[in-house]
Every structure is written in structure tokens, then in C-alpha cells.
């Protein structure tokens, strides 16, 4: 797997075996920012379609537009778009989409309530803010969208490209966060006035609730409190469904049809993040299938050590071109050794996690051919 320094002390990740396995329905790519996670997800999706004949969709939660560009699409939105130019044998197809959390929220409301109530919810200022900007909404809607794609049964494989950094796994918290929100005392209190027909929410007889409303009104203001209460009441009948669907998707992520791939670069910060993801997945009982190590330095002549190359450069100093080549070789060997040492920290901590190394690319990936090359590297071809 590696060059002069020898193989990493870890099993080899067989990416083609993973992508060809009909029992694997979901692949989740997670990792810190700037390690090639989006490109990896796209390359996996393309290879699954072209080499293994699978009808694949790539769902990105990362707001970056690189995925659309590399697949020749003008833009990605909340609807899967078929990628043209895929040379799939056996009926393989590739589709791609980008999560639109507000549109997904709107779709959920439309699917689980009547048209009149949906219009009331859409017009509510609190809903408009929550569905667009509130912290946690994106993560919950990612669970919703993944659950929708899985339930439709149209895809052999769903590849999920998560947001960068540790927020990549925040969507795993969506069911618990939602339960805390729905069971919270404030939400229960806000439902009380909306359930009292024909009475002003500020004229209830309950002294305890009166104290509550006065306190909250000082913080939120009368109109916002009214908007919140109306919004909560409108969604009250849907709350159980929200929770049930999120928990169902969570269980899917725990079972054998899902494979988590941690994507990293051979750099200290990225490897530390990879270790965080590995620990978090173990804690959540999620199946960690392997580590994709991107942007690994390669050495053309691994038998020549850095010391030998540097000594040769000194001897050949009069022949500038050859000496320069030796110096570059020496620097690459030393860089590769540093990368291996950093990566071994992860391998030592997680010796059973398979690893695949992807060499650093000469240029940024911007089309399907570039994604194919990444796919070949992932498969070891």
C-alpha cells in the first residue's frame, strides 16, 4: 500500500468489494474539511454505477459546489439529477443532489398534514426562521432526506457526503435532540394556550402559566411568543412522526446495510479528527468500514533513501539538473515518512480498521475522468 516505508500495519480496504455488495445500501463519508471528502463521495458513486452496475445517488450536505461541477451539472438542488456520460455496464446510473433544508422541511409538512394547515405553517414567521436558519435544522433534515431516499426504494446505493469537521456527525444527534425538544417543558407549556379554544393566550386562569408567559414575553416579546405557540400547535400532530422517522433512520445507520468511511489526509489535524470520528461511531454503534487516506505522497524510486539521495545531490552538485532531482527525491521520501508516522497513530489505535491510500493528484478534479481516476486509486487498480 505504501512505498519504501512498507505497508501500514492495517488491513487493506477493498473498496470494490464494498461497492459491489448488494447488502450495502448506504455509504456515509465523514471527515474534517479540506481532505477531499466530497470528491471521494462522488468518485465512489461513479465507480459503483460504472463498474458494478448499481443505481446510485450521491447526497451532499456540504454547501460546496465542487460536486456539481465535477459531474458536469450546472447546479445541484433537493431533487436527484441524473449525471450524463456515465458508462455503466449492467444498467448502472449515477444521480446527485444537494440538501436544501427548507425545501425538505416544506416537503415533510406537505406530506404529513392537510393543505390548509400546511399553508398556515408556511406563513408562520417562526417556521420561516426555523426552517431556514435555526441550528440543528440542517442535521435533522439530513436525516429526513436520507430516510426519504431509503424509503423510496429507487436506489441500489446512497452515498452521503457529510458537512466538514465535527459537525459531520451532528445528524446522528437529530433523534435525541428532537426528542428533547418535543418533550421539553417550554414546548409543552406553549401548547397549552393554543389548545384552549376561543381564549387569548394571555388570559388563561392558571397562575403558574401566567407567570411563565410573562417571563417568556419579556425575553421573546408578545408577537414572537404568539408565533412560536401557533407554530408548535400546528405541528403538534406531526411531532410523533418526526421523532419516529428520525429514530428509524438512526437504526438504519446502525445496521449492516450502512458503511461509514472516514476520510482524512496524512496530516496531524486530519488524523486527530479521524480518531474522533472513529470513537464517535463506536460509541453510537455505527459500522466503521474503513479509512480513506487522501493526498498521500508517492515516491518514484522507493529503494533510494533520503540520505542516499541527499548525498548524491552533494556529489553531483556540478550537474545541477540531476542534483536537483536528487534533492526533490530526498524531500519526497522524508515527507512520505512523516505522513506514515502520522497515519500510524491512527492505525495503532484502531488496528482492525481497513485503510486505503489515494495518491496526491497532479491537478484538482473537475470532471468525470478525474473522478474515475480517484475511483481507480480507491480500488487499488
Automatic annotation (TrEMBL):
Domain of life: Bacteria
Pfam families linked: ArsA_ATPase (PF02374)
InterPro entries for this protein: ArsA/GET3_ATPase-like, ATPase_ArsA/GET3, P-loop_NTPase
Residues annotated as domain ArsA/GET3 Anion-transporting ATPase-like: 25-296
Protein name as catalogued: ArsA family ATPase
Organism: Planosporangium thailandense
Species lineage: Bacteria, Bacillati, Actinomycetota, Actinomycetes, Micromonosporales
Amino acid at each position: 500500500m505504501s512505498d519504501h516505508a512498507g505497508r501500514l500495519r492495517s488491513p487493506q480496504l477493498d473498496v470494490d468489494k464494498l461497492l459491489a455488495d448488494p447488502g450495502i445500501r448506504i455509504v456515509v463519508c465523514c471527515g474534517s474539511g479540506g481532505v477531499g471528502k466530497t470528491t471521494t463521495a462522488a468518485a465512489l458513486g461513479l465507480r459503483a454505477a460504472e463498474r458494478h452496475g448499481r443505481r446510485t445517488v450521491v447526497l451532499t450536505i456540504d454547501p460546496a459546489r465542487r460536486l456539481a461541477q465535477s459531474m458536469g451539472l450546472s447546479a445541484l438542488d433537493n431533487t436527484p439529477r441524473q449525471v450524463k456520460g456515465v458508462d455503466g455496464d449492467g444498467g448502472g446510473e449515477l444521480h446527485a443532489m444537494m440538501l436544501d433544508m427548507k425545501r425538505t422541511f416544506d416537503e415533510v409538512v406537505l406530506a404529513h398534514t392537510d393543505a390548509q394547515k400546511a399553508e398556515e405553517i408556511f406563513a408562520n414567521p417562526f417556521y420561516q426562521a426555523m426552517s431556514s436558519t435555526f441550528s440543528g435544522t440542517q442535521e435533522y433534515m439530513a436525516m429526513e432526506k436520507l430516510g426519504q431516499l431509503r424509503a423510496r426504494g429507487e436506489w441500489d446505493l446512497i452515498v452521503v457526503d457529510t458537512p466538514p469537521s465535527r459537525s459531520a456527525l451532528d445528524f446522528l444527534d437529530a433523534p435525541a435532540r428532537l426528542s428533547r425538544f418535543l418533550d421539553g417543558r417550554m414546548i409543552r407549556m406553549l401548547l397549552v394556550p393554543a389548545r384552549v379554544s376561543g381564549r387569548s393566550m394571555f388570559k388563561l386562569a392558571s397562575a403558574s402559566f401566567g407567570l411563565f408567559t410573562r417571563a417568556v414575553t419579556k425575553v421573546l416579546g408578545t408577537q414572537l411568543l404568539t408565533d412560536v405557540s401557533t407554530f408548535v400547535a400546528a405541528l403538534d400532530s406531526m411531532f410523533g412522526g418526526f421523532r419516529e422517522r428520525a429514530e428509524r433512520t438512526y437504526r438504519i445507520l446502525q445496521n449492516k446495510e450502512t458503511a461509514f468511511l472516514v476520510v482524512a489526509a496524512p496530516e496531524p489535524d486530519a488524523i486527530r479528527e479521524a480518531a474522533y470520528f472513529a470513537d464517535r461511531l463506536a460509541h453510537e454503534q455505527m459500522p466503521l468500514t474503513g479509512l480513506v487516506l487522501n493526498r498521500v505522497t508517492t515516491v518514484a524510486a522507493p529503494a533510494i533513501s533520503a540520505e542516499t539521495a541527499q548525498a548524491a545531490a552533494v556529489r553531483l552538485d556540478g550537474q545541477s539538473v540531476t542534483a536537483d532531482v536528487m534533492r526533490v527525491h530526498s524531500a519526497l521520501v522524508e515527507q512520505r515518512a512523516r505522513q506514515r508516522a502520522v497515519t500510524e497513530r491512527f492505525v495503532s489505535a484502531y488496528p482492525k480498521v481497513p485503510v486505503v491510500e489515494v495518491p496526491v493528484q497532479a491537478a484538482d478534479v473537475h470532471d468525470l475522468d478525474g473522478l474515475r481516476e480517484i475511483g481507480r486509486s480507491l480500488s487499488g487498480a
